[in-house]
Amino acid sequence: MTTTAAPIAASTRQPRGSLRARLQNILPKLVLAPSFLLVLIFVYGFNLWTFFLSFTNSKAFSSTTLVGLANYQKLWTWTFETDPPSGWYTAIVNMGLFGGLYVIFCLVLGLTLAILLDQKIRGEGILRPIYLYPLALSFIVTGTAWKLFLDPGIGLEKAVHLWGWTSFKFDWVVNPRMMIYCVAIAGIWASSGFVMALFLAGLRGIDGEIIKAAQIDGASGFAMYRRIIIPIMRPVFLSALIILTHLAIKSYDLVLSVTGKNPGGAAELPSTFMYSYTFTRNQMAVGSTSAVIMLMTIAAIMIPYLYSELKEKNR
Amino acid sequence: MSAADLVTAAPSREPARHSNLTRVVIYGLLLIFAFIYLVPLVVMVMTSLKPLDEVTGGNMFALPHAPTFGPWVQAWGEARIGVSETAGIKGYFWNSIKMVVPAVLISTMLGALNGYVLTKWRFPGHKLVFGMMLFACFIPFQSVIIPMAVILGMLGNIGNALDDLTGFSFGFGNATVNLVIVHVIYGLGFTTLFFRNYYEAFPTELIKAAMIDGAGFFQIFRRILLPSSGPIIIVTVIYQFTNIWNDFLFGSTFAAGDQSPMTVALNNLVNTSTGIVEYNVNMAAAIIAAAPTLFVYIVAGRYFVRGLMAGAVKG
How far is residue A94's CA from residue A264's CA, in Å, rounded to a whole number? Predict the structure, then answer.
């Protein structure tokens, strides 16, 4: 895979006039150029633009008056002391809660389901699609379904009451302090199937010889997974961890749909914070600042990962 | 064998030997999880088939006593969405289709050409170009949304000016056109990734042979690569279709009122603050919104999983 096609083309064309050869040489670049240019402008250029806005005092419209790091200072000095607590502080705390629960539960559930499915069971073809179908649904649909399911006046709480356990209480979805946990529940439901698929691919990719050797050495059952299989799958863990973390940071529609447009900012996340400051509170500079922080966080996670992935591919 | 094929392939290792008790526990756990994953969908479907008094007065787990398609009819053609004049979600469903079809076709076509150039016509720095396009897949869209809004606002002004001059806006400022542009640009990274990884494994010898026979850049693409690209085209189309259909952030930012896509309309319908909440109509609307992607998942689940796995970067 190290030889490229282009030089061959050039050498076979040389005798027959070089105009066509030269055209053949620049044609691939011409074809790629528009896409690359679009990405360059609309991704990297726009990121720089947002970065610039975060140093200005833009309100409803963008302005070019620079205010240095004032916006960053503003975000990070806002605390829980104020009543109600500042939006950014709530967003960061919620991000930790939601992100932590989402990542950990998706990993644990995904791995458990994958291991269970890998036990030569019957009906795998029916079970696997059931764990995966939530991925086909939009977060708005997922949120709508879970909002109904968790609504105390109509969903789970009421159903349990009707079954006779009348002191049962489960009102998280309407309780501002607990809303973020409901977002996490819906998120875990939506994404754990994907993690299951990742782990299942990992499990099935393990060389059978290694397993046989371990069996001969007397490893079996639980020990086999703990000592041999799970350590082999470390790269899969890393992939899953990174994909989940970046999804958690980008979560936006799920919050709005589970909580019903995030009343009072109780389930605020950086993504919703950015949107409401930019588009409803007319504080574009503060919104840009939060967007830059989101971007930096994701870049810090993704760039080393993508770099190592691409390097590996070149073996 | 790609990662996704490993998921769908039967386990190749020695059959796991378990006692009967262990088997019962394994099946029991798998069935409990299957139940948890299915319950929200089942409740959604049952609620959508109940009259409103049965929803508010009864148990959500109870089968409908008097099943009716009334809520579906209402959701499709009669329900009031936000402050909009148009009744029902049918108009928004159509908006989404008009947005999804061109966006998927254009981004897939560009992705195929980019993947072809990046694997078979490599040039110095091809890796950096690919890396930059790949990172674009993972950015939080909050960091490009303000500049995008400014640019689309400018396009809108151009459209107005053209409209004054010629009586026709040529698509400038049209919400559907805007969303197609946005989805094509921010989908390019993924479509390029899919095709690059697929063409990477395509034998370069065939390309060289064709070159010696005098085939040009586009001829090779059309006659040699394209005919064997069926599977990856399906994967890409499904992935892009699901992502774009399910998008909420761009839809809610760049389209308003009657021009909104389906997810935005659903969110407005569900979170409307006026009048009584018609849960059954909300659920019918949610199922209609989920139907296209769910349908794709059911008929082409294998390709769906392949797209997801490739999205986890591993090729």
Answer: 14
| pLDDT tens digits, A191-239 | 999 999 989 988 888 887 887 888 787 777 778 888 888 888 888 898 8
Q: Domain of residue A81: give its range.
A: 73-313
Disruptive mutation site among A61, A144, A311 for chain B (greatest number of B CBs within 10 Å): A144
A32 to B131: CB separation less than 8 angstroms, yes or no: no
Answer whether residue A102 is part of any domain.
Answer: yes
Of the partner residues B55, B135, B145, the one whose CB lies closest to the CB of residue A306: B135
Q: How far apart, in Å, are the Cα atoms of B281 and each of A139, B68, B105, B149, B284?
A: 18, 11, 33, 33, 5
SS (H, E, C) B143-197: HHHHHHHHHHHHHHHHHHHHHHHHCCCCCCCCHHHHHHHHHHHHHHHHHHHHHHH
Classify A121 as helix, strand or coil: coil
pLDDT tens digits for range B65-75 = 888 888 898 88
Domain identity same for A89 and A2? no
Q: Could you give the CA distance from residue B267 to residue B253 in angstroms, rounded to a whole number?
A: 13
- Least CA distance to B122: which residue of chain A? A4
Instruction: Look up the CATH number of domain B3-14+76-311.
Output: 1.10.3720.10
Domain count, chain A: 2
Q: Indicate whether A182 and A228 sit together in one domain.
A: yes
Residue A162: how many CB atoms within 10 A of its CB? 14
Q: Is B80 helix (H, G, I), strand (E, B) or coil?
A: strand
Do residues B269 and B82 lie in contact, with contact meaning Cβ atoms separated by under 8 Å?
A: yes
Residues A41 and A77 in one domain: no
Q: Residue B310 contacts by C-beta under 8 Å, 6 or more apart in sequence?
A: B2, B3, B4, B193, B194, B197, B235, B239
Please tell me the distance from the alpha carbon of residue B12 to that of residue A204, in angstroms, as a whole number: 7
Q: Which CATH number belongs to the domain containing residue A207 in this structure?
A: 1.10.3720.10
- Tell me the torsion sign for CA atoms B122, B125, B128, B129: negative
B125 three-class SS: coil
Amino acid at B102: P
Residue type, B90: K
Q: Is the pTM of this model over 0.95?
A: no
Task: Tell whether A149 is covered by a domain.
Answer: yes
Count of helix runs (H) and strand runs (E) in chain B = 15, 0
Q: Give the model confidence (pLDDT) of A266-290 as tens digits.
A: 889 999 999 999 998 888 999 999 9
Whether A271 sits inside 8 A of B142 (CB atoms) is: yes
Cross-chain Cβ contact A47/B139 below 8 Å:
yes
Residues 6+ apart with CB under 8 A from B133: A35, A36, A39, B114, B188, B189, B192, B193
Q: Are residues A116 and A152 in the same domain?
A: yes
